[in-house]
Amino acid sequence: MSGDWSIVWPALAAGLLVTLTHAPLGMQVLQRGIVFIDLAVAQIAGLGVVFADWLGFEPSGVGVQIAALAAALVGALALNWTEKHWPDVQEAVIGVSFIVAANVALLLLAANPHGAEHMKDLLIGQILWVDPARLVAVAAASVALLWTWLALQPRIGRVGFYVLFACAVTLSVQLVGLYLVFTKLIVPALATRGYARGRLAACYVLGALGYAAGLGMSLASDLPPGPLIVCAMTAFGAVLFALGPRVARV
């Protein structure tokens, strides 16, 4: 694998854009106790991508993006409804939603000769092959989502949170894959949960370090970047937690 900067900078930029929105949303996910919602909504968005591909839409076309966002919004709003009516079993409902969406995607890909490759891309992403031209639109959408969350969070309510979450996950899952979406949402929030001040900044630093280290190791070893970023970010998160303030035991 070439160490050409033209390959590295779009991948790092994509990772930083995902970090921009996922750090504050991850803190909210952890606070709400719905840790696996990102996996479920990301998988449902991925199901939208697979369904659009099954219908014959161009992989990078507008139809695929609409299908992914529509699926994520339907899934997120459905989970909002279940949280309101069955809060005691919300985590179980989220788990069932994830596994059903994953298996429907597998069924749609069963007759596709490239089905295994599509599923691999959905899970671990292809961050090294991000189209730089696409990053402009992703950056604009990410800034808009972050501004909306930071400006309206006190008044946005549960439905607003689920809608913003669905939009953010739809953007990120096609850039970096399902595993990195989960890691970026949960690991920084978990590692900094004892921080009273500077928590969001610490999440951003952790995310940037994880992406940079993982990409660097990938270029040096020719191993896939997604799993290396997951491992690097988790290792940095463990160090950050160990060096940070203690969490009070309840």
Brief description of this entry?
The protein has helices at 5-32, 37-54, 62-85, 90-109, 115-124, 132-176, 178-191, 199-221, 225-243.
Explain what this protein looks like in three dimensions.
- The protein is mainly alpha-helical and 250 residues long.
- It has a single domain, classed as ABC transporter involved in vitamin B12 uptake, BtuC (Orthogonal Bundle), CATH 1.10.3470.
- Helix content is 80%, strand content 0%.
- It has 9 helices and no strands.
- The longest helix has 45 residues, at 132-176.
- The protein is globular, with a radius of gyration of 18 Å.
- The relative contact order is 0.17.
- The model has no long low-confidence stretch (mean pLDDT 84).
For the report, how would you describe the main beta sheet? Answer: none
The string of secondary-structure elements, in order, is: HHHHHHHHH
Structural class: mainly alpha
Oligomeric state of the chains?
single chain
Q: What's the CATH superfamily, by name?
A: ABC transporter involved in vitamin B12 uptake, BtuC
| Proportion in helices | over 70%
Kindly give the count of domains. Answer: 1
Radius of gyration: 18 Å
Low-confidence stretches: none
Strand proportion, as a percent range, falls in under 5%
pLDDT averaged residue by residue: 84
CATH class: Mainly Alpha
End-to-end gap: 49 Å
Instruction: Count every helix, treating DSSP H or I runs of 4 or more residues as helices.
Output: 9
Number of strands: 0
- Tell the overall outline: globular
Q: Report the CATH architecture.
A: Orthogonal Bundle
Named CATH topology: ABC transporter involved in vitamin B12 uptake, BtuC
